[in-house]
Amino acid sequence: MQKKGKTLEEICNEVIRKVTPSDKENVLSFSNDLVKNLGEKLKSSGINAEVQVQGSVAKDTWISGETEIDMFIMIPKTCTREVFTKVLEVIKGFLGEKWVEAYAEHPYIKAEIKGYKIDFVPCFKIQRAEEVMSSVDRTPLHTAFLKSRLDRKRRAEVRLLKKFMLGIGMYGAEIKVGGFSGYLCELLILSYGSFIRVLKEIIDWKERIVIDYAGLYKGEKEKIKKTFEEPLVVVDPVDRRRNVAAAVRRDKLDEFVVAARAFLKGPNKNFFYPNNTKAYDANGVSHAMKYRQSTFVFIRFGKVKAVPDVLWGQLYKTSSSLRKLIEQEEFKVLRDSVWSDEKRFNVLVFELEQRFLTNIKKRFGPPIKKMAECEKFLQKHLDKPHTVSGPRIERGRWVIETDRRHIDVVEMLREKLVNGGRSVGVATFISESLAENFNIVTNEEIIEFYSSNIHFAKFLTEYLEGKPKWLNSPDRTV
Ligand code: CTP
Ligand code: MG
Fold it and tell me: I need a surface site. Which of 8, 169, 253, 405 has the fewest CB within 10 A?
């Protein structure tokens, strides 16, 4: 007899129990002590600043196992940005040895104390979004807006939605993910009331979704659609000029829609807790690649001097430029993908129908009824060194066969990338790394690296499996 699956409600309640942190009191008392100690340290260093816990810890929406404390250091808006640097210096002194300064646009410090991950973020203290001076100044306004509106029930629903997004690989507004930020999840819950309602709204998605929870556009949806161009628009309740969902990439939104449909049809805990990918062994991966009879081209290079957001932006841009280049040369690309450990190793992957093209390439001339063009075509190609065969008439037009410039995709890529590849659209920091060194291998030649790096091995295994982890046969329930 088939085991009866759990109901939607049972699964949701079970997940809520698991994602609600059991150590809330500890996190809060640790954070409050830190606020006090850092505040004193700043004061004694002569800096006029207010320290506050912000983000999901302040809103009580963080999920168990993902505790990250956002510690904001708010300085008066009359100060200059130089004060940020001073604030960071004091924090570094306060932390001692263990910290990393990591930022793309806004300066902040990452550290870990007593097992808690903490971001220290300086910002200007503002009352209204119009006064915003740096990109993170709105955050305290977000926290204030949500704190008074998210009750216990809704906070549980936020955690559930965040965990769902995390499980299906869609949580985070960073460039690498291009998905849903925590703040966006919170606003979706506020707007629709519950996790299930959010899913039910999204499954019918057709053109664009527009949400203006605070009514800042007074119901004028057309105006919102004109103001923003993204497929999902969630007007920031504290700033009508900002779309909180601006970072959500189209493919992620599409995947969310189909994942929501699948979950409602066959509720399953795997959506929240995907199975850990078990990488194929060397034989397995070799067999899987051979079976496809395609050509995998792996472009490997080392450290790129850029923080993760910049790195991923440049990896995606470079990958898309190189795909265009490869296609222009008439190689057929089946799929492309990108992998990085954000430290030492980067790999661009292109899977092609074949590595080599024919030596000759067919070029079509004008139809015979165009007399003048025919004359020109003949002048250009008849008895010329580049013409391998022809000209002759085929189905009413002149044709010739000429030598192809590149018959080997690997050679073509080596030639274009050896100087960094700027001219074929490789992004700046990537180009610097390529100019120093890179290495192109095909098919099983990757196995040595594959066997030495478990993260890459999992990535390539997932690539070969080629489907979202949550996608199971529709009648399978757990
Ligand atoms: N924020 C934002 N838009 C983003 C990223 C962050 O508005 N794309 C703001 C939000 O106000 C958010 C705060 O920055 O609350 C802190 O960011 P983050 O730590 O990424 O989000 P949390 O809400 O704290 O969620 P998480 O539980 O993932 O930390
Ligand atoms: Mg946070």
Answer: 405
